[in-house]
Amino acid sequence: MSGRSAGAGEEGQIGGVHIKYLYHCPRQLWLYGRGYRPEQRSGLVAFGEVVDDTTFTRRRDVDLGEAKIDWVTAGAVVHETKSSRAPAPAHAAQVRHYCLLLERRGVAVRGGVVHYPLIRRTVDVTWDAEARDEAERSEDEAQAVIAASTAPGRLKRAACRGCSYLDYCWGD
Q1: Helix runs in the chain, H state only
Q2: Which one of 26, 32, 62, 74 has the largest count of C-beta atoms within 10 Å of its C-beta?
């Protein structure tokens, strides 16, 4: 099991957002770990919440404290809904992290599915020893980024399009 550091989340635990930000932009993760939360003013984040709220309306969130899973079906399959029009490594990493968190709670997880309702596509996420190792490595990397005394460098500006942290990183 990975170590925990302050600033990672509730009681220092790593949640799904931390893993998503690790894959998207370590600087974003570092800022988020320090409480900087401009997502609340982001139109793209609001759009994602609307997609989540209006898709698969009969499902129930699973709140683990440090993470909120969109839903888990019988047989312990983790489901995550994304408003993106393209699958990304961060999405599968987030599902693997949720699988890891459930497994730590004694659930015999079978895998996961990422749903992309805007493009009517799903991506299966395997859960096996290799996926578990990858989830643990991601958790450790997220802890290291958050614990760093200085922020990681910025991505190239083109990669920041639509990011709610854009003004912080690129503002004049």
Answers
A1: 16-24, 26-33, 43-54, 89-104, 129-147, 166-170
A2: 32
